[in-house]
Every structure is written in C-alpha cells, then in structure tokens.
Specification:
Elements lengths: L2 E3 L6 E3 L17 E3 L6 E3 L5 H11 L10 H4 L3 E2 L7 E8 L5 H9 L7 E6 L4 E5 L2 E5 L1 H4 L2 E3 L6
C-alpha cells in the first residue's frame, strides 16, 4: 500500500484503505481512491497510466520550491505564506485592495492588529478569528500582510 495525500484537505492516508470506500457499491471495480477525511476522489496513481503521467508532469517545476521558513527572512509576509495551525498578527492590507473589500474584511473581524490562526491553505486559506472561521481566496490571502512569526 502506498501513502497518498489528499489534494483537497491535505490528509495522508493509505491508498488501499477499504474503510474509505466501504459504502460504495462500485468499490470492487473502481479505479478511484477516496479520501477517508473529506471524500474527495482521485484516480489511483498505481492503477492508472494517465495519473502516473500527470503526477510526473506536475512534479516538474521551474526549480526547487522555496523553503517554508522563507517568510521569516522577509520584512513581512502574507497569510498565503503561513503554515497551518500558525498564529499570525495582521500588519496591513496591500494598497491595491479595494476599500469595499477592506470594509468587508473588517466586518468579519480581519483588521490590522488582530491575531488570527491559519487553519489550512488548500484549496483556499482558512483562518480562525476568535470563534469564527473565514475562507479566503489565495489571491486575497496574498494581499493581507502579517508580522513575521517569531523565531523559536
């Protein structure tokens, strides 16, 4: 059994886990892998030549990915740079962010000086503000500057 990571929720699971597809009547002839956490279905890379080709295609990049700690080296970073379960203090909004969008974010409690916790980054950035959770588009999360996390 190989370990897969769900592209939707980020949970790691075993590809042949029978509990994920136990309720499906087509499970015996199915070539999909189902995430036990969110139910997202994707082609089984071990059983599909197309899935293996696509995985190789998308693994090619323009170079190595930046290290996760790159945010700590910059004078500021954005909510899109934060790792999950990381608290972040809102520093400012990007100047190109419209005033209507700023007011909407303020109405939801997302304002400079507030501390939020980033819960997830895929498929959208989800932050927790007090007891509320707010989903932000990746582009919008990239326009919210935060203080760099303290080095521990």
């Amino acid at each position: 059994m190989n370990t897969l990571t769900c592209p939707l929720c980020g949970v790691e699971f075993q590809a042949g886990d029978p509990s994920a597809c136990a309720a499906c009547p087509l499970a015996s002839d199915c070539r999909l892998v189902c995430c036990p956490n969110c139910g997202y279905q994707q082609p089984d890379p071990a059983g599909s030549r197309l899935a293996r080709w696509a995985a190789r295609w998308f693994e090619r990049g323009d170079g190595p990915a930046p290290p996760p700690a790159a945010c700590e080296l910059a004078p500021f970073c954005t909510l899109a740079d934060c790792q999950p379960n990381q608290p972040a203090c809102i520093r400012a909004f990007h100047p190109e962010l419209s005033s209507a969008r700023r007011e909407l974010l303020h109405a939801h409690g997302l304002a400079p000086g507030r501390t939020v916790t980033v819960l997830q980054q895929k498929p959208v950035t989800v932050v927790q503000i007090g007891a509320a959770e707010l989903a932000l588009e990746t582009g919008l999360a990239g326009m919210i500057e935060i203080e760099p996390p303290e080095a521990s």
